[in-house]
Amino acid sequence: MRSQFSLSAADYSVLAELTRVPDGRLRVLELARELGWEKSRLSHHLARMTRRGLVDREVCASDRRGVYVRVTPAGHEAIATAAPRHVEDVRSLFLDHLTPGQIALLAEITEELIENLTRVPDSH
């Protein structure tokens, strides 16, 4: 990714999350939660991505303390260019080596793990 598209794995993850939402923007804390990153790590990374023109920030109109991160046209172009190669790499490095049954099992396990991670913990 880095050598061919000038995107780190972290850049790709941020852009992938932002381009999954309809308006291409998320609040910083929501993006940190989606990525599983500490807020400080995300803030430093977003500063680097902002300098490169991949994302920008905007103040939340309804909550002046809140900040949105928004993918820029350059960020959209970067992920649109890199995504087909990313999919090709995942397929050739992982999925092509599994049987259909193994892929189904992997999907089942992944769904269970994601469900467990997103489940609200019991408050006792």
TrEMBL record:
- HTH marR-type domain location, by residue? 1-115
| Alphabetized SUPFAM superfamilies for the sequence | Winged helix' DNA-binding domain (SSF46785)
Signal peptide (UniProt feature, chain positions): none
Pfam (any one)? MarR_2
Tell me where on the tree of life, at the top rank, the source sits.
Bacteria
Q: Which CDD domains match?
A: HTH_ARSR
Q: Which InterPro entries match?
A: ArsR-like_HTH (IPR011991), HTH_MarR-typ (IPR000835), MarR/SlyA-like (IPR039422), WH-like_DNA-bd_sf (IPR036388), WH_DNA-bd_sf (IPR036390)
Residues annotated as transmembrane:
none
**What is the designated name of this protein?**
MarR family winged helix-turn-helix transcriptional regulator
